[in-house]
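Complex record, two chains
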Amino acid sequence: MIQILIVEDEFLIANLIKATLEGQGYRCKCIFDGESAATEIETTHYDLMLLDVMLPKIDGFELISYINQYEIPVIFITAKADVKDRVKGLRLGAEDYIVKPFDVSELTARVEVVLRRYNKSSGVIRVLDLEIDTNSRNVSKRGVPVELTYKEFELLLLLVKNKNIALYREIIYEKIWKDPFCEDTRTVDLHIQRLRKKLGMERQIQTVFKVGYRFVDEVD
Amino acid sequence: MKISLKIFIFTYCIMMVVTILGGFFLIHYEYQDSLEQARRVALEDNDTLYTYVAAIEETIGSGSAEYSMKRFLEQMSKGDENNILIGDYEEVQEYISLNQAESLEHGQYSYFIIENEGEVLIQVVSKYYSKYILNHYNITGIIERRNQNYELYRQVIIAASVVIAAVLYLFSWYITRPLSKVTKMAGQISAGDYTVRIDSSYKNMKSYEVEQLGNTLNHLAANTESYIEKLKGEAQKKEDFMGNFTHEMKTPMTSIIGYADLLRTFDLNPEQRREYSNYIYHEGKRVEQLALNLLHLIVMEKTDFQLEHISVRELWKQLEKEVSFLADKYCVNVHFEYEEGDVLGEKTLLLIAIKNLIDNACKASEKQTDVWLQGKRFGEKYQILVKDCGRGIPESEMNHILEPFYMVDKSRARSQGGAGLGLSLCHKIIQIHGGEMQISSELQKGTSVTLLLNMHEKGGGTNEEIPENG
């Protein structure tokens, strides 16, 4: 399991990142100041570090030069949006730079990219008898390739990444079609039906009454 | 055209014209004078000859006069017979034309300047009946001297023109040199370097006007420099303020947006829902507080307030009402003590300031400790003291605590909903009141903030315009 260290002095933001990433299946730990973060990485192995710039005791820019010797990829999370701050952060060896306020989906996307770059995640998700390759966008069931359209693939990915959690229909629409949800559209339902048929997963992709859909990996 | 070149050319031309004209005039005058003298001598000689001829003719008679005349002529001409000639027209006709001879009557004379074999002569002719009396005066020497003088003077002028040119050039350069210094400096200023100054001591600048110009430019540069420094400082302050503001704004916004996104995306369990909505609520409150404080700060920059007299008793009553919840929230005992009196102020603003101070005091205090709000007369002022026995402010932080968004302990301040605007807000309010604010603090012993406000004199003036705050 991939271990992520979150160094952020704002409890709420640290908790938010933790909740989001744990939902994606990562294991996270929150640390609230730079000094403790330095001690933490000495004792425990981490695959990725999310680092705030403005931290008590030791700030993020100082901490990163210390972290570099452990070869842990670092993503800065900061309210400093200045180009010169971004450049400074990246020069110091950060993999990416996320500016507050950020969208949680943006955060997860960037985390995935960095992990893939470090080969910490192969980009292949295996769930039940499905194999989803996020790089080549190929899906196969029991080794047999399944043809999916662009939207169908995105929809499957969203469901699988948030498996066992019910997702609201409106938000599914917003996240995949990038448009505000319109009351009487049946687009999501139609795509779900086609996805169920193509994958033969009528029972795994469940309809949640008045909410939306849920992907479950254990069917009773 | 450079001013030094102008001075040079102008002065040079005038000097040369005056010198040349003056010199030639002098030479010419001297020549004329010599000529006049020569003419006079020639005429006098002729006159003498005429008298002699007349005397001889009358006493001796014309027939026997020849011999005497010859002797006389020999005497007069001192051996040079050509100089003097006395005789009838036939005898003198090779010297004078018929015209000249005929125009003369008995007793008259005339003179001419003639040239003869390279010599210039003044020739005077007078007539005694049929006899012509001629004499010459050689003026070749005079003319030659004049020409020599001209030649000499021409050489003098050529030499002088070179010397004058050199001297004038140096002089004009010397006079305008400080000007070019000043110009150079003005150039540097216009190029944006406001740190340059001219050494404009009298000795260095040579002339009063240039010294004045230098001083004026120095003033200009100094003023502009300080003005630009001020602007830079203000811009820096503004930038800091914006930086802090965005940070303070973005942090709660990130939480609000993030948790709201979790809530709307996932069908979460009730426990998580409550937790997340709670976060959103509190962060929303924080943004609200920040916006309110900012609004106060902005309003105070823009508005002119009317100060009126406020009874301290009423003020304290209202504060007790509004602040009592703080005492419960932080479990501290807030004591309200005051001396009767009226202060001059804007009630809403004063309430905001004092509430902020009490809020700070409560937040800094441990549970079950005391916070005091004391009011007492202090000479002609009214002193308001907010005191706690809390954790205090480290001495190194004292310089910064009035800066907007400055927080001694960021995480604690944030967890208590602060954004670091309270004290700068108070400071601004007290400035508007023309009062003073003093903060003294000792670590782990407590902090006390003292406000000094103007009292309202009984029977004194009513409302007073607020002094402009800087």
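Note: DSSP finds eight helices and twelve strands in chain A.
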